[in-house]
Amino acid sequence: MRHFHGIYKNVCEKHDPSYYAKFKKWADEYFWCKHREQTRGLGGIFFDDLNDRPKEEIVKFSAECLASVVPSYVPIVHKHKDDEFTTKQKEWQAMRRVSF
Fold first, then answer.
1. What integer pLDDT is reported at residue 97 of this predicted model?
2. Please, are residues 27 and 46 in contact by the beta-carbon 8 Å criterion?
3. Entry pTM
4. Domain range annotation of the chain
C-alpha cells in the first residue's frame, strides 16, 4: 500500500501540493461503507469536477493519474498473487458476490 499511495502522492504533489491530502480524504470518505464499518477497496485518491484551473492542466493531471494505475497496482498483485486464502475468507467472498 505504501508503494501505491506513494505513486499517487508524487503525482498529486507534482501538480498541486494540496491535491493528495484533499483527494485521499475524499476517497477515504467516499469509499467508506457505514453499514459494514469498513472501506471498499484499497484506498487511493478520488476527484471529480475539477474546474478551478485551465482545462489543459486538469487533463494533464488526469492523464498522469491514469498512466499511474498499472505501475502502482501491479506490484501489489505480484506480491500477493500466490497468497493462500482460508476457508473463512472464501466463504466471506462468496457471500458478497453480485449477480448481474
1. 66
2. yes
3. 0.75
4. 2-95
| Beta-carbon contacts of residue 93 (< 8 Å; ≥ 6 apart) | 85
> What 3-state class would DSSP assign to 31?
coil
Q: What is the mean pLDDT of residues 5-29?
A: 95
| The three three-digit cell numbers of residue 5, written as one number | 499511495
The residues with which 39 forms a beta bridge, in sequence order, are: 32
CA distance 79 to 66: 22
State the architecture of 2-95 in CATH terms.
3-Layer(aba) Sandwich (3.40)
HEC string of the chain equals: CHHHHHHHHHHHHHHCCCHHHHHHHHHHHHCEECCCCEECCCCCCCCCCCCCCCHHHHHHHHHHHHHCHHHHHHHHHHHHCCCCCCHHHHHHHHHCCCCC
